[in-house]
Design goal:
Number of domains: 1
Shape: globular
Radius of gyration: 18 Å
CATH class: Alpha Beta
Order of helices and strands: EHEHEHEHEEEEHEEHHEE
Strand content: 15-25%
Number of strands: 12
CATH topology: Spore Coat Polysaccharide Biosynthesis Protein SpsA, Chain A
Strand order of the largest sheet: 3-2-1-4-8-5-9-11-12
Distance between the termini: 23 Å
Length: 263
């Protein structure tokens, strides 16, 4: 039986390029019968109506008007009638239905993540490259996976919050699955990618953006909670769910160890 899944994301003001990417991603999610929740602004009403998406404008924001990741997770999980929830970046295009894979995860409480395929000159795709395990663009999870209200004030799209989420997930004592070998959604690379390095933003006069990136980084470094997709206890393969045999140290030289009998 197909699980009922709510994808939740957030968008701001969209350029012509980002609009095309978001349209493609939303269409792909809709094509696979997945419900969409958008944390946005009233001017996103037409876009949400086009894809039968729920528009929620009540998200908590920083003093710069940027949504706080904690608020996205906490508010999304309050929606009723869903078996799974998934935070996803708004420009991630599904090229495969994830539900048959998620059905294979026979744990009451779990999270499923994975890498993405970066493509240049989308949709011509002049170049393709699998993104590194540290860039995490989607998190499928059961409602009871953990209480996210303890998440610090990470701003969305300012870096490092995904590493904190993974670190907490891997320390949760619950099953976390890497889908990369069997599920690789597409990410169109923007023509002008914004650097995640706050020093570069400061050097270019982008003081507010640089400060926000620096603040996310500072929170992350202070808490020293880091995880990546290649550190999960399980991987999904064509044969099904398998235990990961090699787990690298995280950024702070921590080795995740798992008690598989307790999942």
């Amino acid at each position: 039986m197909n699980k009922k899944i709510l994808l939740f994301t957030t968008i701001g003001k969209l350029s012509e390029e980002s609009q095309s990417h978001v349209n493609a991603s939303f269409q792909s999610w809709k094509d696979y019968g997945l419900d969409i929740l958008v944390f946005g602004e009233t001017f996103h009403k037409d876009l949400c109506s086009k894809f039968d998406a729920i528009l929620d404008t009540s998200v908590e924001k920083s003093e710069f008007g940027i949504p706080l990741v904690r608020s996205l997770f906490v508010k999304a999980l309050q929606y009723e009638g869903y078996d799974l929830f998934c935070y996803i970046n708004s420009d991630i295009i599904f090229n495969k239905d994830p539900r048959p894979l998620l059905e294979l995860i026979d744990y009451k409480s779990f999270m499923a993540v994975g890498q993405r395929l970066d493509v240049w000159d989308w949709p011509k795709n002049s170049k393709e490259e699998i993104h590194n395990p540290g860039g995490i663009d989607y998190f499928f999870m059961t409602k009871d996976f953990r209480d996210w209200s303890d998440m610090p004030d990470f701003s969305i799209a300012r870096g490092r919050f995904d590493h904190w989420i993974m670190g907490k997930a891997l320390d949760s004592g619950k099953a976390v699955v890497d889908l990369t070998k069997v599920f690789l959604p597409v990410h169109p690379e923007p023509k002008n990618r914004i650097s995640a390095n706050p020093d570069i933003q400061y050097a270019n006069g982008m003081v507010k953006l640089g400060y926000q990136q620096f603040r996310n980084m500072n929170i992350f470094l202070d808490l020293q909670c880091h995880g990546q997709t290649n550190m999960t206890p399980f991987i999904m393969t064509k044969k099904g769910l398998e235990k990961r045999t090699e787990i690298p140290l995280n950024e702070f030289k921590h080795q995740f160890k798992y008690d598989y009998e307790k999942f």
